Amino acid sequence: MATIEIPQQLLPGDGRFGAGPSKIRAAQVEALAEAGATLLGTSHRQAPVKDLVGSIREGLANFFHIPDDYEVVLGNGGASAFWDIACANLIEKTAAVGTYGSFSKKMAASVESAPFLDDPLVFAGEPGTYRIPDFDERVDAYCWAQNETSTGVAAPVRRVPGSQEAGALTIIDATSAAGALPVDVAQADAYYFSPQKAFGAEGGLWIAVLSPAAIERSAKVNAAAKQDDSIRWIPPFLSLESAISNSRKNQTLNTPALCTLILLENQVRWLNEQGGLAWSSARCRESASIVYEWAEASDYCTPFVTDPAARSTSVVTVDLDDDIRDSDVTSALRANGIVDVNGYRKLGRNQLRVGVFPSVDPDDVRALTRCIDYVVERL
Length: 379
Fold this sequence. Notes:
Helices cover 37% and strands 14% of the residues. The chain is an alpha/beta fold. It has two domains: 9-24 and 276-377, Aspartate Aminotransferase, domain 1 (Alpha-Beta Complex), CATH 3.90.1150; 27-272, Aspartate Aminotransferase, domain 2, CATH 3.40.640. Catalyzes the reversible conversion of 3-phosphohydroxypyruvate to phosphoserine and of 3-hydroxy-2-oxo-4-phosphonooxybutanoate to phosphohydroxythreonine.
């Protein structure tokens, strides 16, 4: 296929629209260069790095308006590590899991693989929809994703009626939602995410906003695991007790990637300076609306998620007509510096997927839609 050259005046100022890793702002890179000159290669257990972690924890507490008795905890590994942490530390025996895409299914798979847990009660929805678990008196933890990154579906964060009274925890995977979608974290006991989405950092870290009930559950489960007759194994790397203890000292169990911490701290500070979660979620909603309205008006693509109430405002998915191959569109865009708008490979649809996290300028999103139109007209 001949190369399609998009006119310069149509191109976005920044061509990064990935669903994660996401765009990192120039100011973050500058902060990395400045802070990195003194922090990189130094101990994470000394004041300069601990102060950085403390700033992240305080900034996120303010950003999410967490209740006074909740805590911001962080640890090594990404959100996928927290699936196993939840299995080892937060689920006592039986979990209910809502599955409606690749990542929510992976949480269910982690529960299924834990030999000391019962098989989960799986509440499955079709890709493009969401499914929150129903109440069941056997369940001690309810799990689902606020945003299914693979499909562009957003689900409500609200406790299953009767679950809190029954002593069950609510565990929310917020990886591509946190920082972009509105949330009342008091509706969850563990609201966890990675920083390479809305928080514009690199991977290798997980962050969780934990309720007193989650902290108490972790202590209870860890104490029970130490009994001679227990079959539960909690590897030190997956110990939530250890992560909580270290976070209270503004450090992690193992050496963290300082680049990630520096990028994250700068982004959290920037978001709070702009107006916090209210500003961030409004900006993402504006960008998402641009794509959805464009797709609805288009004669060759449509929003994949048919229910407007379920459409994500951080990761937008649109289906292309069969006579337009997504690979042709994404290849042409990439040749012009517009990258990472590929659909999720395992979903297997003829689709584009656009990350509209807070670092992405809505004007660049408008430019993206014009560039897609330009490319499709010439295919």
